[in-house]
Amino acid sequence: MLTDTHAHLDFPEFRDDVPAILERAAEAGVTRILTIGTGIESSRGAIALAEKWPQVWAVAGVHPNHVPDEEPDFLPTLREIATGSPRIAAIGETGLDYFRLANDDTASRAAQAAAFRAQLDLALDLKLPVIIHERAAWDDTLAILREYTGRVRAVFHCFGKSPEHAREVLALGHLISFTGLVTFKNAPGAQASAAGVPLDSFMVETDCPFLAPVPHRGKRCEPAFVRHIAEHIAALRGIPLKELAAATEATVERFFTRVRSAYPPTRSARD
């Protein structure tokens, strides 16, 4: 059994074939999927999917790149969304992303930081974990997270950095999660981290429809492909897929405590 801990099933790429996508996931042994909100409407869409499909859980949040698209005071609406359904498993994805910002764009950076802190505060208040998005903003992201050390649990999704970076995250009591990036030849940092971090310190995800793993690179990604990611990491570590799957599933249930009541899988993951 595997869980895709980060998907975007509300995105237009999946509008017409969610049932088939879920069927293919089950065939691959992927029995749980967390679909992640990137804004207010996206979070509502995630909840709608989670309330329709028992194998799907929702995460509600505002992505740093979408902060300008929301009302300045979006937090009361996000709180209402996050408290309105038992199918919410976490807050996010939230964090900092400076990749497309000019170095002197202090206003955008400040707005992202304010939104990040607001969502961390919400997660703290609701006793929910947090999905972290970080791109080209490592030091600032960690600086803000350090303010919440011991109070909020987080996972750095789509982790592609070095083992040294991974150790920084783990030292703060957080987790990392690997996408199809770990299967790419040009991602030695992700591969080294996946091979070397403790077995109970990471999860697996697709971030679909993005970052399809080898052998599907360049195609639309979907939750079934998380099996390829898990297989690749198991090979990097020299352990059976069954052992890696058992460890990551235990981590999923320890981190996303609400998914412990997930439905009984209709199919077992193949060894």
Topology, pairings included?
Layout: E1 2-7, H1 18-27, E2 30-36, H2 40-52, E3 56-60, H3 75-83, E4 88-97, H4 106-126, E5 130-135, H5 138-146, E6 154-156, H6 163-171, E7 175-178, H7 188-196, E8 202-204, H8 226-237, H9 241-255
Parallel strand pairs: 1-2, 2-3, 3-4, 4-5, 5-6, 6-7, 7-8
Helix pairs in contact: 7-8, 8-9
Explain what the structure shows:
With 271 residues, this protein is of the alpha/beta class. It has a single domain, classed as TIM Barrel. Helix content is 39%, strand content 16%. It contains nine helices and eight strands. An eight-stranded parallel sheet has the order 1-2-3-4-5-6-7-8. Helix 4 links the parallel strand 4 and strand 5. Helix 8 crosses helix 9. It is globular and about 45 Å long.
How would you describe this structure in keywords?
single chain, 271 residues, alpha/beta, TIM Barrel, 8-stranded parallel β-sheet, 9 helices, 8 strands, disordered C terminus
Specify the overall morphology: globular
Q: What is the CATH fold-level name?
A: TIM Barrel
Q: What is the CATH C level class, in words?
A: Alpha Beta
Number of strands: 8
Q: What's the architecture, going by CATH?
A: Alpha-Beta Barrel
Question: What does the largest sheet look like?
Answer: 8 strands, parallel
Determine the structural class based on helices, strands and strand pairing: alpha/beta
CATH superfamily: Metal-dependent hydrolases
Bin the helical content. 25-40%
